[in-house]
Write a structure and sequence with these properties.
- This protein is mainly α.
- The relative contact order is 0.19.
- It contains 15 helices and no strands.
- About 75% of the residues lie in helices and about 0% in strands.
């Protein structure tokens, strides 16, 4: 066992030996406790819209609302790891647009759509690694670096697409009919999101990599002193953020059947908001993949609800911001209540 692995094991063993009653919480119950606030807000929002407008409960409408949140949800899943270790990836909107354009160009130039998928995913990973390397080599905050690469990546996407939407793709290919369709009556993108959430929730809470991310976020100096590879973990976390963003771009290409370099504007802020709503603090040290997805769902439900209530579009940002504040306040109140009970 290496020194790094021993340090992580010691930290995990100390947490497990904590004599406080919280050690007795099993995983499912702990999950409900940690995500209760955001899930409660999500449920109340659905009821608040569906009771006066029963059509909102229609299965097709609920699936459509959930599907609209998939792209932000996937970005948020990767963003959780960055935020949990006190990093921020503001470049996801640009990464999303650039990867989407790369995939559309490959397909238009004769590549089989399914063969273009791994290239798109690798492009997303490469952009995430680039962010991490620049952050490390220049010793700059990831906030500043990814703010720059947000515009850099989007600019490359616009240049590659010549500022126009990329069309004339083989929409009869199985990639578009299956990955962009509704197998089993449920959008394929939702099946992918379910798989990603399941895997990454386990990675964050039950793997050595997840423990390192949380340890670095809790105390970067102590983590480095104990032998945890901070730089390598940063690279892995930002690469993961790029991967989940590329996954969102793949699903967007399949669903829209075109490559639009203007897509994804503002997605980075929505992804961060979804993470914060879901209980991942900017201070680092902890995070919730399930909570981040629930936060993205809240944003999607709010957008759908505004349509049902016929709220003027000019009030959309106001309403979304208000819901974010209410969700964060409710989650914080529930966490304080839980700590007092323990």
């Amino acid at each position: 066992m290496t020194e790094t692995e021993r340090a992580v094991d010691d930290a995990e063993r100390a947490r497990e030996q904590d004599p406080a009653p919280r050690r007795q919480w099993p995983l499912p119950r702990r999950l409900v406790r940690d995500e209760l606030g955001v899930l409660l807000v999500l449920g109340l929002l659905v009821l608040a819209i569906g009771i006066p407008y029963p059509d909102f409960f229609d299965a097709d409408n609920l699936l459509s609302t959930a599907h609209n949140s998939v792209y932000i949800s996937l970005m948020a899943c990767g963003m959780v790891f960055a935020l949990a270790m006190r990093e921020v990836d503001l470049s996801v909107g640009g990464t999303y647009a650039m990867v989407l354009v790369v995939g559309a160009l490959l397909v238009r130039d004769g590549w089989a759509p399914w063969l273009a998928v791994p290239v798109m995913l690798l492009t997303g990973i490469a952009l995430g690694v680039f962010n991490a390397l620049v952050t490390t080599l220049l010793a700059l905050p990831s906030f500043i670096v990814t703010l720059g690469t947000l515009m850099l990546f989007r600019g490359v996407g616009l240049a590659l697409a010549d500022g126009r939407q990329i069309t004339d793709l083989p929409l009869d290919d199985s990639f578009f009919t299956f990955a962009g369709g509704d197998p089993g009556g449920v959008p394929f993108a939702l099946w992918v999101l379910l798989a990603v959430v399941t895997v990454l929730a386990v990675v964050l809470t039950r793997t050595r990599f997840g423990a390192r991310v949380r340890a670095i976020g809790s105390n970067p100096d102590a983590a480095a002193f104990s032998g945890i590879p901070v730089v390598r973990t940063r690279v892995q976390a930002l690469a993961l953020s790029g991967l989940t963003t590329a996954c969102a771009a793949v699903l967007a290409l399949a669903f829209y059947g075109a490559g639009d370099p203007t897509l994804g504007q503002g997605y980075e802020l929505q992804a961060i908001a979804a993470c914060i709503i879901g209980g991942t603090p900017l201070a680092g040290g902890r995070g919730s993949v399930v909570g981040a997805v629930a936060g993205a769902m809240i944003l999607s439900v709010v957008a759908a609800g505004l349509v049902f209530f016929e709220v003027p579009i000019n009030w959309t940002s106001f309403a979304t911001g208000g819901v974010i504040l209410v969700a964060v306040a409710a989650d914080s109140a529930l966490r304080r209540t839980g700590r007092r009970r323990r």
